[in-house]
Amino acid sequence: PFGINELMARVNSLIRRYTTLNPVTGNEAATMLLKDMVIDKINRTVTVQNLSVDLTGKEFDLLLFLASNKGRVFTKKQLYMQVWTEEYDFDDNNLMAFISKLRKKIEPNPEQPFYIQTVRGVGYRFNKEA
């Protein structure tokens, strides 16, 4: 048991150590190369089949989070809390609309998505084959 100031000092110390030991260097760390997609984490840009894709900030955050966790299934609540960083409001329509818009922008065939897959009754995952 310790006070909030001590907790903040410890957290800041851990963050400093992590960023010192794991700096973002080179294109490998800053760029995610997938099947036909390139995600540039620094410039927050996405290209699919060598064409630039215009994404909103939240669309980019959602895509980056899913792509960074290929193959892992996330519930709608987990995705909402991770990307929107606020308490889940039990309205799935907002997240489903973002997924739909994102698929239309990145998928060759949004009706049969390759990248962002629906896991019925659970949520979504990014294709581990991408």
Automatic annotation (TrEMBL):
This is Two-component response regulator. Residues 29-128 form the OmpR/PhoB-type domain. The keyword Transcription applies. The keyword Transcription regulation applies. Keywords: DNA-binding, Phosphoprotein, Transcription, Transcription regulation, Two-component regulatory system. Coiled coil: none annotated. CDD domains: trans_reg_C (cd00383). One of its GO terms (molecular function) is phosphorelay response regulator activity. Signal peptide: none annotated. PANTHER family: REGULATOR OF RPOS (PTHR48111), TWO-COMPONENT RESPONSE REGULATOR ORR33 (PTHR48111:SF1). Transmembrane segments: none annotated. InterPro entries: OmpR/PhoB-type_DNA-bd, Sig_transdc_resp-reg_C-effctor, WalR-like, WH-like_DNA-bd_sf. One of its GO terms (biological process) is regulation of DNA-templated transcription. It holds the Pfam family Trans_reg_C. One of its GO terms (cellular component) is cytosol. Gene3D superfamilies: Winged helix-like DNA-binding domain superfamily/Winged helix DNA-binding domain. It comes from human gut metagenome. SUPFAM superfamilies: C-terminal effector domain of the bipartite response regulators.
